[in-house]
Amino acid sequence: MDLENQQRVKDAAEKFGPENIVVILGSSDAEGAEIYAETLTKGDPTFAGPLAGVPLGLAVYHVFEEEIRESADSAAWEDQIGMMEMVLDPAALSEAVRKMREEGSKYTL
Amino acid sequence: MPLFSIAANTCMLKCGFVRKRTIREVKHMGKLEGKKLLLLGERDGIAGPAMEEVLKESGAEIVFSATECFV
What is the rounded distance in angstroms from the CA atom of residue A56 to the CA atom of residue A39? Predict the structure, then answer.
């Protein structure tokens, strides 16, 4: 995960409180999504960025997960995401993030 | 005389009775209501602006949105 974005996440968690934050991922592959989710829950596994050793335990979801989809505007979804939903593997992406969330998140929706 | 008057919010029945209509405002209270959203998109997946577009009416505040790319 980009070091600059790690810092932005850390700053937002300090400012708003981690319990109020939901991070939504748009990753294209399950492995990448899992690493993102790990960084946002348990801390940066590469120990390279500002979230190294910082287990924020944030509520992290992939945009394809039902909890997110049900809050989305359906017309905009078809316009903006519908095509990629057919190309990517929503089930694998959702499962990868859900698994890491269950392991490391202190907060959920 | 129209059988239904929107302005008066009443419904005049054929028999002459006036029945007050209750208009229910259905507001979608999603799970994201009141939350602060951080959107981490990916160029080859779902980009940040696309997620912004679908979630802007969710009742949550979008704190920031980014699109990363792995080249």
Answer: 9
Cα→Cα distances B39→A22, A84, B21, B67, Å:
9, 17, 43, 8
Task: Quote ipTM for the complex.
Answer: 0.96
Q: How far is A75 from chain B (nearest CA, A)?
A: 8
Interface of A with B in 29-68 (CB under 8 A): 29, 32, 36, 63, 67-68
Is this prediction's pTM over 0.80?
yes
Q: How far apart are CA B50 and CA A35, in angstroms?
A: 22
Beta bridge partners of B61: B36
pLDDT digits (tens, 9 = 90+) for B36-56: 999 999 999 999 999 999 999
Find residue A21's DSSP bridge partners. B36
